[in-house]
Automatic annotation (TrEMBL):
GO terms for biological process: carbohydrate metabolic process. Residues 116-189 form the Glycosyl hydrolases family 2 sugar binding domain. Gene3D superfamilies: Galactose-binding domain-like, Glycosidases, Immunoglobulins. Keywords: Glycosidase, Hydrolase. One of its GO terms (molecular function) is hydrolase activity, hydrolyzing O-glycosyl compounds. It comes from the Bacteria. Residues 230-320 form the Glycoside hydrolase family 2 immunoglobulin-like beta-sandwich domain. Residues 363-487 form the Glycoside hydrolase family 2 catalytic domain. InterPro entries: Beta-gal/glucu_dom_sf, Galactose-bd-like_sf, GH, GH2_Domain-Containing, Glyco_hydro_2_cat, Glyco_hydro_2_N, Ig-like_fold, Ig-like_GH2. Belongs to the glycosyl hydrolase 2 family. This is Glycoside hydrolase family 2 TIM barrel-domain containing protein. The keyword Chaperone does not apply.
């Protein structure tokens, strides 16, 4: 680093020298006394590690690392002014970048709103060690939402989009010497606009969270030569055992690009070329959650016959392939490296009580990934938010698969509504931001699925968007619409079921997945955003009860895998503000369930799918004949010998149209229904019997007069409930009687019941 002051950080097994100018360090230390966190409702343990001279000091772009850089995180001046006012002459105070102005860690914790504009200002010096005749790039990890930047009074650029990195070349605006000034203005309409924004709103409530405005990822400078690597695209080709390297810079015949691949510090491959270079990888070691092995790669831009180096960057990649293929039984599964792998993960919101969109430290980012893996999950669905590149780095390094949502915005449509028509401005902005996100995070091996739409929010032109997404990145799968607005396109059919679990019917061309389920809630006093009126899909009062309920869900999930379910996403990683559905508290101070029991249950999901055999069919595919009544029958109606000849005869299932997941063949719209049906086991009682049931709402199930199941609430599809010794004792080898009572209070309603045998495969 030419003798310049430096700090050392570990980057993927190698030490990378990160430039930290002495002037900047002194500025931060002297300014530190002016900053302290605002009095937020809840803080994490990492907040104590945050200070103006030590705030996200890691190199922010691990997929394209340059040695020399200057971190501009720290204290900036800030002002909040009317949207139409010009640049302020006086500022309101100091803000700690890169924390959103609404967050406690910013030191400000004030709202901005669509009628105002947020201004930033700071000075810096260009390090003398960088020399002359170079270009200076000003990089922003992410700023929400409409950003304009001036350097020394000269406008250097504007960017719209809250989730992707962007860069301005500020060389032309720099003074020959002395302090340089940066001024940044940000306008964010939040939920008053149509732009992609995720779950932030002006009036937080329920599943909607505090607004986020302004800089929320690292800001930094880097020097580059006139000829430099403008972009880098790394594509592992497992079928042909090679890495394809594409350089974004326009190159000429006088240029030469050298690619050097290393494994555990040893060079294993080299190749040279221009914009597209194929590098054979001998005996490739594959990347997977069980073995997240990463190759290092160095890319050098030089002259084809002179010892000149224009630019050099470090990166890494994982040799892995994600695909949709059929298993041995002809069912579509999600394959990793040529083998079916059930993907099971958290719905991960990525919110922090002290930093909102911004994690307090890099260690905090790592913790979320680490604890997800420790609990036995192999995937996270990053929900309507895009993280800093460092989060994906930890997913790459620790072996966590990622489904990446596009942040939602604009209008909603209901489950039965057609796609709506976005305005041209709204559609153009959505597609611009989505393409930039895919381009920015393309190199991360952890990302295996792109998800453009969630639950009908902003959903338009679904078939075209799904096809376009696939063209942007043909190496990954596309989940065109997670939730209830499926259009029959993309690689998967994704449903949501709370608490669930349930699964859609098996399809010929797509895999079936459960994009959200669970949502089991437990507020933990002292670890909540507010003391009272917390919210969960279903609430429990103790850690033990919460764990037991989770284990029941996972027990019900396992049979669905046998039926074809290829992936599932549990809601959610942590509590968020008043939402207490997390497996962890919002401050990450407590795992709310028994971690050992959760991990043991989760790990069973990755075993080969069990064998499921129908014993008494439900009416999901073919209507089964039942006797039924909606008038309360005499006592003993569930007994085998009860005379039901006066009851009506109808085909299941029973309920009302538009009940989620229901196949209604006989209308039932009163509060109660009683059902009876006989079945013959053919001489023997099968092993591992489960009740297959879809109920909305409370139901009791009897076999030969014995109560074998008493279920509460509702499901949005069929679940399998293990039947214990009491049920087996009630069964006879031949003729048996099934009796069901269902009660409902409001909304949709449905009941259908059958029996299945579920056995694990022998090794």
């Amino acid at each position: 680093m030419n003798g310049s002051p430096a700090t050392t950080r570990l980057y993927h097994g190698k030490h990378v020298i990160l430039f930290a100018a002495l002037l900047v360090a002194c500025f931060c230390l002297s300014a530190g006394a002016e900053w302290k966190p605002a009095d937020g409702p809840l803080m994490t343990k990492w907040a104590r590690d945050v200070s103006p001279d030590n705030v996200h000091a890691e190199y922010p772009r691990p997929q394209m690392v340059r040695e020399s850089w200057l971190n501009l995180n720290g204290l900036w001046d800030y002002a909040i002014r009317s949207k139409d006012d010009g640049q302020p002459k006086e500022f309101d105070g100091r803000i700690l970048v890169p924390f959103p102005v609404e967050s406690a860690l910013s030191g400000v914790m004030k709202p901005v709103g669509p009628d105002n504009r947020l201004w930033y200002r700071r000075n810096f010096d260009v390090p003398v060690a960088w020399g002359e005749g170079i270009r200076i790039l000003l990089n922003f990890g992410a700023v929400d939402w409409d950003t304009t930047v001036w350097v020394n009074g000269m406008k250097v650029g504007n960017h719209r989009g809250g989730y992707n990195p962007f860069t301005f070349d500020i060389t032309h605006a720099l003074r020959p010497a002395g302090p340089q000034e940066i001024v940044v203005s940000v306008w964010d309409p939040t939920d008053a606009g149509t732009q992609p924004r995720g779950k932030q709103v002006r009036r937080p409530r329920g599943i909607w969270y505090t607004a986020v405005t302004g800089i929320w990822q690292t800001v930094w400078l880097e020097p580059v030569n006139r000829r430099a690597i403008e972009g880098l695209k790394l594509t592992p080709d497992l079928d042909d055992s090679k890495l394809i390297v594409e350089i974004g810079t326009k190159l000429t015949r006088s240029d030469n690009v050298t690619v050097e691949v290393s494994a555990d510090g040893e060079v294993v491959a080299q190749a040279r070329g221009l914009n597209r270079i194929e590098v054979p990888i001998p005996d490739p070691r594959l990347w997977s959650p069980d073995d997240p092995f990463l190759y290092d790669v160095k890319i050098t831009l030089g002259h084809f016959n002179l010892p000149v180096v224009h630019d050099e960057v470090q990166s890494y990649f994982g040799m892995r392939k994600i695909s949709l293929e059929k298993d041995e039984e002809g069912i579509n599964r999600l394959f990793l490296n040529g083998e079916p792998l059930f993907q099971y993960g958290f719905l991960d919101q990525g919110w922090w009580p002290d930093g909102l969109y911004a994690a307090p430290t890099d260690e905090a980012l790592r913790y979320d990934v680490e604890v997800t893996r420790q609990l036995g999950f192999n995937m996270a669905r990053k929900h309507v938010k895009v993280e800093p590149a460092r989060w994906y780095y930890w997913c790459d390094k620790l072996g966590l698969l990622v489904w990446q949502d596009m942040p939602s915005g604009d209008r909603y449509i209901g489950p039965n509504d057609p796609d709506f028509q976005r305005t041209k401005e709204s559609a153009d902005q959505f597609e611009l931001e989505w393409s930039r996100v895919i381009e920015a995070f393309y190199n991360h091996p952890s990302i295996v699925m792109w998800v453009p739409f969630n639950e009908g929010w902003g959903q338009y032109d679904t078939a075209r968007i799904a096809e376009w997404t696939k063209k942007l990145d043909p190496t990954r799968l596309v989940n065109s619409a997670s939730g209830w607005t499926d259009r029959g396109v993309g690689d998967v059919h994704d449903i949501h079921s709370y608490p669930g679990p349930s699964a859609p019917p098996v399809e010929e061309a797509r895999a079936i997945v459960l994009g959200e389920f669970g949502g089991l809630g437990l507020p933990v006093r002292g670890h909540t955003w507010q003391d009272e009126r917390n919210w969960g899909y279903r609430s429990y009062e103790t850690r033990e009860a919460l764990t037991d309920a989770y284990l029941v869900l996972i027990g019900n999930l396992r049979p669905l895998i046998a039926g074809g379910l290829a992936a599932a996403v549990y809601t959610q990683t942590t509590d968020v503000e008043i939402e207490v559905n997390g497996l962890l508290t919002y401050d990450r101070a407590m795992i709310k369930m028994d971690a050992a029991k959760v991990r043991a249950a989760n790990e069973k999901l990755y075993l080969p799918p069990p064998i499921i055999r129908t014993v008494v069919p439900t009416s999901q595919d073919d209507g089964q004949v039942w006797r039924y009544t909606t008038a309360e029958p005499a006592d003993g109606w569930q007994a085998d010998e009860f005379d039901d000849t006066g009851w009506q005869i109808g085909k299941g299932g029973f309920g009302t149209e538009n009940t989620p997941g229901a196949v209604v063949r006989t209308k039932w719209d009163s509060s109660d229904i009683w059902l009876r049906r006989s079945f013959d086991l053919g001489g023997s009682v099968p092993p591992e019997l489960h009740l297959s049931i879809h109920h909305d709402e409370d139901a009791k199930v009897y076999i030969n007069g014995t109560l074998v199941a008493d279920v509460k609430g509702y499901t949005t599809g069929y679940i399998q409930i293990p039947l214990g010794e009491k049920a087996r004792a009630a069964l006879r080898p031949n003729l048996n009687r099934l009796a069901v009572y269902c009660h409902q209070t409001g909304g949709g309603q449905y009941i259908d019941v059958g029996l299945v045998s579920i056995t694990e495969r022998t090794p």
